[in-house]
Structures are given as C-alpha cells and as structure tokens.
Amino acid sequence: MADEVLSQNEIDSLLSALSTGEMDAEELKSEEKEKKVRVYDFKRALRFSKDQVRSLSRIHENFARLLTTYFSAQLRTYVDISVASVDQLPYEEFIRSIPRMTILNIFSVPPLDGRILLETNPNIAYAMLDRVLGGKGTSSNKVDNLTEIETMIMSQLFEHSLENYQEAWGSVVEIEPVLEELEVNPQFLQMVSPNETVVVVSFNTSIGEASGMINICIPHVVLEPIIPKLSVHYWMQNQQEKENDPEEFAALAKTIQSAQVDVRAILGEADMSIEEFLKLSKNDVIRLDQLVEEPMKLKVDEEEKFFIQPGKRKNKLAVQVLDEYRRGANQYE
C-alpha cells in the first residue's frame, strides 16, 4: 500500500494533538503494527481497471451518438440515447436486475470469442415496433406473446443497428457483429457462468413519449484479448501512429489535391453608395484602391493566398504568382 502524504495543516494538527496529550504516540505505534484487513468479495471480482472502464465508456458514448442518429432516421421521431453508467458485476446479478420478460438480442463479435447481450426494455422495444408499423410510438408490454412478424421486424431493426457498434469499436479493434438470436426470457439464457464478471453499459433511452433503458452486457472473456488496448496509453500511442503514418498522409494529400476550390484574382476594390451606383453610365470610371504598380491579390475560397501580376498565356488572360500572401506582411505594401 502506498504511503499517505499529509498536508501541512494535518501535520500541524497532529503535532498539536501530541503536545496537548489528546493523542498518545505509543498508541499510534501499536496501531501501525496491527495488520490492516480489507473485506474482498471474490464473487464480485473487479477485473477491469478504472482506466479500462473509462475507455469502454468512451467507446459506448460514441455508440450512443451513432445509435441516436440511426434510430431517428429509421423511426422518424425524437430519439435520445445517452450512457447512464458503466459497471462491472457478476453475470447472475445482471440477469436478476433486468425485467422477467424483455427483449434480448444475442450477437457474436468475431474475431473475438464469446457473445454480447443487448437488452432492450419492453417500453422502448414496443415504441420502436409501433413506429415501424406506422403508429405514433405507443408503448405496450406483451413480450410473452410476440408474433413471428413482430419478432422478424425487431430482429432486423436491431441487426442493422449493429453496424454502428462495429463503427464505435473501429478505433480499438475491427469486429463484425452478427445477430444470432432474439430471446424474451433471461432465465433461458446462459451465456457465461453465474459468477463470471461482465461489463454492463446502461443507456438512458427516449423514443417519442416512451422512455426506458437499453443495456449491453459484455462478458470478460470477450474483452480479455483486447484489454491492453483499452488503456489511455494505447489510445494515445495509436493516435500518434496514425498521425505519423506516411501512407495515410499520402492518401489524405491525394484526396485534398482533387478538391474543387473557387479562385479569384482581385484587380482592386472600391466603395460607393447605392445612389452613386445607380447613377453609373457608359464610359464612367470607377477608381479602385489598387495602384497599377502594386501586385494584385489572389483569393482562394475568399481567403487571400498569393500576390500576383496579370498577363497572358497562349492568348488567354492569366496571372503569375509572385509570392505567398502573409497576413501583416508589407513586402509589397
């Protein structure tokens, strides 16, 4: 255990208590010799560090944003999804915490082993179903007697949403989620042993007037091969490698080179009132703020980029670049 560092105020208070007799130095020494015991529950083993839990939270916050966009487009109604909590607990405890009858989507994530569970509260699931079938998003709870058509619609709706899950994990590992089955009774579902540690990501979800929770249950066995990638150090190192990747830089440069931009050569500018403009007639001369011997400026998408001079190339009007324009530079001014 690391030594605790006392502040100056705590040191002063301790010295004062010793000097007044409120505390006995011998008692303190005897307390230090005693073994300090901390209760540890082996059934609720914490197998992920706070750093790794934060990384999982960051991944699923991205997933929540993608899922909000996906369901908003599919259901054409107000949708709001946000991460409420990220916890690690035994699988048995998670099963006890969800409704007796609910919507359970079980999907695999190759190349990772194991399966992940996406549980959707019936209030949310039936609001989605009602919207897909042309309703107003009214919620009802009749999970125990889903028809084949309702089961198929829900399966397709959640199966397509897994593309967003693949994208959310893209910065850590390339996965290919595949929906395997849709179940309604958690008691018939045994993904891992009851004491297996799982990470449960809970989302606050609103679909129109309905609200409820969506939970993602990820067993430790699924994340075990990629646990080192869930550290902040890995994220920073991976980001730095991407920034220094010459192939990615070359691809980005090639893409930028084909971008279309608006380029304009500015002869000069002049200010005049609307009245003066309306009185203009043939052969009138507008005096510009640009002297003949001064170089012109070339604008790229309204940004001044180069000093230029006019000329011709193959009997066509053209400009020659003299120098790069630097804001505040006075080499031509």
TrEMBL record:
The keyword Membrane applies. Gene3D superfamilies: CheC-like, SpoA-like. CDD domains: FliM. PANTHER family: FLAGELLAR MOTOR SWITCH PROTEIN FLIM (PTHR30034), YOP PROTEINS TRANSLOCATION PROTEIN Q (PTHR30034:SF6). NCBIfam families: fliM_switch. Coiled coil: none annotated. Belongs to the FliM family. The keyword Membrane applies. It is a peripheral membrane protein. Keywords: Bacterial flagellum, Cell membrane, Cell projection, Chemotaxis, Cilium, Flagellar rotation, Flagellum, Membrane. SUPFAM superfamilies: CheC-like (SSF103039), Surface presentation of antigens (SPOA) (SSF101801). Pfam families: FliM, FliMN_C. This is Flagellar motor switch protein FliM. InterPro entries: CheC-like_sf, Flag_FliM, FliN-like_C, SpoA-like_sf. The gene is fliM. It comes from the Bacteria. Residues 255-323 form the Flagellar motor switch protein FliN-like C-terminal domain. Its main location: other. It is found in: Bacterial flagellum basal body; Cell membrane.
